[in-house]
């Protein structure tokens, strides 16, 4: 099993690659043409949505990812901003009176909005450990992970999902937030599995070694 981590200039690539050791062959993919080599693809992301979207375009990864998912049906996992990039529209970096948002990959319906606009009145950014709720139980990529397990978060924006059936897990941070989403072979998580100790290791192992569809 070959796991390709998309290297477009952002993300915790080293720690993510280290967390995947022992779960297949891990490759950092800087060239979009190399996406075809991978059995699984991971899109990391940290920082600003608009900046990350621009980097995907400039590096050629935008079209390569759409080809991989929609053309070759390769499983994809987005982490943190990588999850947010799966949306239709993101508002980070596009704020202002004429904010019309920045286009996402459009693989899972929804928009990425600031936590305060979603009703959160707690301290922003949301940083640290928080427990997740699994409405459908510990299945799929959460197999072996009990309901209520803590994962590590760092974010000021969240995915406002259109289709509620796409939500796999939530957390409560002053408001209920989707923190794991899925549409077919495409998964996204707001937390950082590579920083989430044993639970994060189990999650990444499940992505590599289990059926994801």
From TrEMBL:
<comment type="pathway">
    <text>Amino-acid biosynthesis; L-histidine biosynthesis; L-histidine from 5-phospho-alpha-D-ribose 1-diphosphate: step 5/9.</text>
</comment>
<comment type="subunit">
    <text>Heterodimer of HisH and HisF.</text>
</comment>
<feature type="active site">
    <location>
        <position position="194"/>
    </location>
</feature>
<dbReference type="Pfam" id="PF00117">
    <property type="entry name" value="GATase"/>
</dbReference>
<dbReference type="GO" id="GO:0000107">
    <property type="term" value="F:imidazoleglycerol-phosphate synthase activity"/>
</dbReference>
<comment type="function">
    <text>IGPS catalyzes the conversion of PRFAR and glutamine to IGP, AICAR and glutamate. The HisH subunit catalyzes the hydrolysis of glutamine to glutamate and ammonia as part of the synthesis of IGP and AICAR. The resulting ammonia molecule is channeled to the active site of HisF.</text>
</comment>
<feature type="domain" description="Glutamine amidotransferase">
    <location>
        <begin position="5"/>
        <end position="208"/>
    </location>
</feature>
<feature type="active site">
    <location>
        <position position="192"/>
    </location>
</feature>
<dbReference type="InterPro" id="IPR029062">
    <property type="entry name" value="Class_I_gatase-like"/>
</dbReference>
<dbReference type="GO" id="GO:0004359">
    <property type="term" value="F:glutaminase activity"/>
</dbReference>
<feature type="active site" description="Nucleophile">
    <location>
        <position position="80"/>
    </location>
</feature>
<keyword id="KW-0963">Cytoplasm</keyword>
<keyword id="KW-0368">Histidine biosynthesis</keyword>
<protein>
    <recommendedName>
        <fullName>Imidazole glycerol phosphate synthase subunit HisH</fullName>
        <ecNumber>4.3.2.10</ecNumber>
        <ecNumber>3.5.1.2</ecNumber>
    </recommendedName>
</protein>
<dbReference type="InterPro" id="IPR010139">
    <property type="entry name" value="Imidazole-glycPsynth_HisH"/>
</dbReference>
<dbReference type="GO" id="GO:0005737">
    <property type="term" value="C:cytoplasm"/>
</dbReference>
<dbReference type="GO" id="GO:0000105">
    <property type="term" value="P:L-histidine biosynthetic process"/>
</dbReference>
<keyword id="KW-0315">Glutamine amidotransferase</keyword>
<dbReference type="GO" id="GO:0016829">
    <property type="term" value="F:lyase activity"/>
</dbReference>
<keyword id="KW-0028">Amino-acid biosynthesis</keyword>
<dbReference type="InterPro" id="IPR017926">
    <property type="entry name" value="GATASE"/>
</dbReference>
<keyword id="KW-0456">Lyase</keyword>
<keyword id="KW-0378">Hydrolase</keyword>
């Amino acid at each position: 099993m070959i796991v390709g981590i998309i290297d477009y200039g952002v993300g915790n690539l080293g720690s993510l690659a280290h967390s995947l050791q022992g779960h297949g062959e891990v490759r950092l993919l800087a060239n979009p043409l190399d996406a075809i080599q991978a059995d699984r693809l991971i899109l990391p992301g940290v920082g600003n949505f608009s900046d990350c979207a621009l980097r995907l375009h400039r590096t050629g990864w935008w079209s390569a990812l759409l080809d991989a998912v929609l053309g070759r049906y390769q499983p994809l996992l987005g982490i943190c901003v990588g999850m947010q990039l799966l949306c239709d529209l993101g508002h980070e970096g596009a704020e202002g009176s004429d904010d019309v948002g920045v286009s996402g990959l459009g693989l899972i319906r929804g928009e990425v909005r600031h936590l305060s606009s979603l009703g959160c009145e707690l301290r922003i950014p949301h940083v640290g450990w928080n427990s997740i709720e699994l409405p459908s139980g510990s299945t799929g990529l959460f197999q072996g992970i009990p309901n209520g397990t803590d994962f590590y978060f760092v974010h000021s924006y969240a995915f406002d999902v259109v289709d509620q059936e796409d939500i796999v897990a939530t957390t409560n941070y002053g408001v209920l937030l989707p923190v794991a989403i899925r549409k077919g072979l495409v998964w996204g998580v707001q937390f950082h599995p590579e920083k989430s100790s044993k639970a994060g290791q189990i999650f990444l192992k499940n992505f590599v070694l289990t059926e994801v569809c």
